[in-house]
Every structure is written in C-alpha cells, then in structure tokens.
Amino acid sequence: MKALVYTGVETLRYQDAADPEPQDGEVLVKVESVGICGSDMHAFLGHDDRRPAPLILGHEAAGTTSDGRRVTINPLVVCGTCRSCAAGRENLCDRRQIISMAPRPGAFADYVVLPERNLVQVPDAIPLEKAALAEPIAVSWHAVRLGLNAAHTDMRQSALVIGGGAIGVAAALSFLAQGVTNVTLVEPNNLRRSYIGLDANYRVVQPDDISGELFDLTFDAVGFDATREMASAATHPGGVILHTGLGGGAAGFDIRRITLQEITVIGTYTYTDQDFKDTCAAMFSGALGPLNWTEIRPLSDGAAAFDDIRAGNTAAPKIILKP
User: Fold this and answer.
1) What architecture is the 137-267 domain classified under in CATH?
2) For 169, phi and psi rounded to 5 degrees?
3) For residue 99, what is the DSSP state?
4) Do the Cβ atoms of 40 and 130 come closer than 8 Å?
5) Distance CA 10, CA 65 (A)
6) C-alpha angle 58/62/321, rounded to 5°?
7) Chain centroid offset of residue 99 CA
C-alpha cells in the first residue's frame, strides 16, 4: 500500500509501506478520508516522544470495510477490563493505545486495522469526508460534557473558546448542541477568523475584542502560556476552565485568581466510548451543523499540507487527506 510516513523531524514521505495485518478481533479498513490533527503536527516538528520516526501518523479517519460497511473509526484502543474501562472512562485506560502512536501505525495510508468495537457505521447520506470529523469533534464533545457537569446551574449561560482550529470549532458547536446559547470563539489569524465567521451561529472575534468580558465556561483549545493566561482572566468567578490544547509551556494560569474566585480547572483528554458514539449521533442528526469547514487534498500532497498549516496559510480549520 501507499502511506504518508513520518521519517524524521519535519520530514514526511509518500512511499510504499507494508499492508497492515489484522489480528484476532480486528478489521481491515480501507481509508477514504483522514484528517490532519494538531498532534500530527507536534510529531512532525519532533515534539512528541510518543510518536518516534519512522511512523505512519493520522488517527482521524473514515473508510470502508471488506464487507462494504461505511465506518468512522474510534482510534483509541483500550483493554476493556481495567478499573477505568469498567467505569466507562476508557480514555484513562491503563493500557490505552492510539493508532498513529507507537506501536500502532496510523491512517495516513491506504489501509488501517482497528478492533471491531472501534468502528461506528456511517449512514449512506453522510459523506466520509464529514464522517472523518468524528474523532476531533468527540474530543470537544467530551470536554464540554465534563465542563457542563462541573458547572453550577447558574454558570452555563456563556462560553468562550480559545482557538479556531478544528477542536475549537468543534467545541463551539458542541457547546451549542449541549445547550449553551451564548458562545464566543477567539482566533488571532485573520484568514482563519474570516473563514469560520462566514456562516457561524456563534460569535467569532479577535483576542482584543473580548477584553474585560467574563464567561461561565472557557475552553482552551490551544494550550500555550498565553492562552492559559487569557483563560484565567476571562473566566467568571465560580466558572470552569477546560484545558484541552497541548501547545506547550507550563505557565500562564493565574493561580491566585483561580483560587480566590473558585474557578474550576479541568484537564481533558480524548473521549469515552459513549462520548464518541454520542458525537456520531449528533453529527449524523445534523445537530452539529453542515460540517463544511474542511479542505480536501490528496494524501500524496500531505507534506505540502503540513507546510501550509505550519505557515498559517490554511483558512479551513481542518484539512482532510484522501488516499
């Protein structure tokens, strides 16, 4: 098969690779669409020890099985028996693995293998390019659910999302779908902000536009020192900060303000099995909108897509690659 292989820092090669071999309980999926995630970019830049070269990256995928089923894939492979799995918190599994992290090759390829339980069937009316968005949207759906569960009943009226990438856009849509009616997304890139603001049913602004405003729930989809500082300043007393981004750094949180104003901070990671299924149901029902914020490119041009994302030259929050 052909695959886009991470072969070293800032190097991706479209080349021949061995076909994956399904093990007991696993299914071979022909990849039809696969998204580029921020974590793929971290690996590409050499910032992720969990993804050593050489490795096939990519974990946001949809495709078809050998028996003709159209599926989207949950890339989180778990044991199913540990304490966390038994409690329905599979994302905290003691032995969790994710395709695109060693030792499991990812989906920037013609084929990928997953356990049968990781596949969700896609209705015929849903294009697989849109079905591939299930994974990044599930990340945001999970975080929003945790935030709303943690928030007091009087602190669920407004939400701020920091970052206009796919996770941020998905967070804004998830807030709306889960009942928060006043949602603001802040994005500094003019190209990206103009693109997502064309038909968004939430407010899209630049950072200076929210100066002095306070929000009940704040979602940091970036995770840099500066965005943690923004989240600390923008969250209403008694509110909730959801920290999802892994951009880098370890500073930024105003611990004094967080303490004195009883602000809850929740670190969130991936999603539970139920979150993934709930996300798919919301997508397929239309509750998350038309899902039209993607750009489609061939997998063979994947290296150029990474360069464009790094340079900030892509308007769409998500690039979908087609093998």
Assistant:
1) 3-Layer(aba) Sandwich (3.40)
2) -60, -45
3) T
4) no
5) 32
6) 50
7) 14
* CB 143, CB 244: distance < 8 Å: yes
Amino acid code (one letter) for 44: F
Instruction: Indicate the DSSP class of residue 177.
Output: H
Cα–Cα dist 137/276, whole Å: 9
Q: What is the pLDDT of residues 196-223, one digit of tens each?
A: 987 889 999 999 999 999 999 999 999 9
Q: Which amino acid would we find at residue 298? A: P
| CB-CB contact of 136 with 37 (8 Å) | yes
CATH class given for the domain over 2-133+291-322: alpha beta
pTM over 0.85: yes
Question: Which residues, listed in sequence order, are joined to residue 219 by a DSSP beta bridge?
Answer: 161, 242
Domain boundaries, given as residue ranges, for the chain:
2-133+291-322, 137-267
Return all residues near 99 (Cβ < 8 A) that are at least 6 apart: 58, 59, 73, 75, 77, 105, 106, 107, 112, 114
Tens-place pLDDT, residues 36-79: 999 999 999 988 888 999 999 999 999 999 999 999 999 999 99
Q: Are 77 and 100 in contact (CB under 8 A)?
A: no
Tell me which H or E stretch contains 143.
helix 134-150
